[in-house]
Design goal:
Keywords: Chromatin regulator, Chromosome, Cytoplasm, Hydrolase, Metal-binding, Nucleus, Repressor, Transcription, Transcription regulation. This is Histone deacetylase 8. It catalyses: N(6)-(2E)-butenoyl-L-lysyl-[protein] + H2O = (2E)-2-butenoate + L-lysyl-[protein]; N(6)-acetyl-L-lysyl-[protein] + H2O = L-lysyl-[protein] + acetate; N(6)-acetyl-L-lysyl-[histone] + H2O = L-lysyl-[histone] + acetate. This protein is an alpha/beta fold. It has two domains: about 350 residues, Arginase, Chain A (3-Layer(aba) Sandwich), CATH 3.40.800; about 90 residues, no CATH class. It is built from 18 helices and 14 strands. Helix 4 packs across helix 9, helix 5 crosses helix 14 and helix 12 runs antiparallel to helix 18. The protein is globular, with a radius of gyration of 23 Å. The two termini are about 40 Å apart. Bound molecules: zinc ion (ZN). Zinc ion binds next to loops.
Amino acid sequence: MEKCEQSTTKDHQERDEGNPQRGVKRLASSPVTNLREKEVPTAITPAVSKVTEKIPTDQVAQFAPKLRRVAYIWSPQLIDLCNLLPRVLHRASRVHTLIESYGLLTYGPITVLPPIEGGKEHLLTFHSQEYVDLLEFLNEEEDSEKWMEKKEEFGISCDCPSFPRIFEVAKMIVGASLTGVQALTSKEYQVAINWTGGWHHSRRDEAAGFCYVNDIVISLLKLTESFKRVLYIDLDLHHGDAVQDAFAHTSRIMTVSFHKYSPGFYPGTGSVEDVGYGRGRYHCVNVPLEDGITDVVFYTVVKRVMFEVQKAYQPSAVVIQCGADCLVGDPMNSFNLTLKGIGNCVDFILRWNLPTLLLGGGGYHTPNTARCWTQLTAVALGVRLKSEIPDHQFFLEYGPDYQLEITPSNRPDLNTKDCLRTTVQTVFRRVRLVFQVLSIGNWMLVQFVRWFLNFIHRSCTSVMMDGVPFTSAVIEKLVSAEVFLWRERPGGPGNWNGCHHYMSA
Ligand SMILES: [Zn+2]
């Protein structure tokens, strides 16, 4: 076993592929500083992961692979507390133990950071005082009929039952995600990981969909203090409704959600028509999908949409919710994805080389969720994992094959090409409107129109339109009516034909 040392970013992939040990030696001459020397575990190979090798060399090739410094948020208390979450009991320890057993936590570019202590003040940056007070009260209280009405009012029932130490868990989750934010804003790390976070359904004054606290919204709010534009990407099976709604009126954060959208399926929101409001109009992107979607189709859709979003919005930081309930075998029984599908998507985003926070989320088949987030940790580190699950405390739960990979089922894919094409083309049209508003020419035009309308408005300050000041309302109407059009470049990346061709492969 050799020491893992510092690495160059670009070409160690091609020089070292097929010779992991030589690759480790190459790492020694890297200009990247402050990476601790650690031993390379035998269960991993310091090369580009399998999933990245399969990415077609089209327009994404401009984003070169890069050795990333990764912060992994962990402490024994974090795991102990998150093990108490009623709908994902003991999941946190399974995920962490598998990642640890692969030796990923002793690999050079990763640093384990203990979570900061989340406080009431952190929760209050998004949640209401009444809701936080209730969580605090329930922390020590036994579940009793006496408080049923109050709990139901704030969603602590059915999907989100009360449990002992509920307030400590909420604070710990938020503290862990904020530690990830802190790691990114310090510029010492390119990626931060909190697999105990990612609770995207919790609302300001309501627990919902197994989520008691919205650490995502709180993290995004914190990120906007350091980054101009923050992009949120939701890969969970369910729509990221509460995160979208929290930022539906602002352009500082753009939300993109890929999810199952079907009558009666929770939470029932996330139509392609949900685009945001006011200043946030077109900054909410929804890609509704049907059951049975496979790795190739899902990755193609995500890649096409995210390429367009990145080009239009030009984010300075990214948060990805990596819910694992989209995997085949999950009790939600909907999508037909494997680790390769979601791994390809995360790898594509990471190749933008932007500060990125990776969060957990759904995932109700515990061994598969552990497999998925272990694989994503490896993707972030750019290493390949051995297929055999290493022997560890929970090894027997990975039977009967004890392999890392999972196999897709033979269920039909209900996403027709026509339907997908229509959805993606609609999304493209909306996303390009974001670009128009941001582009210099249109920005100047908008500024001129705004100045002109302000000039008029000064003489009639009391005039309102649709409940908002006259000037803002007219700008909004002009943008909505697609007045600021730009000509589509022929054969540009928005061209669906390329995607269609790839999907047919
Ligand atoms: Zn979910």
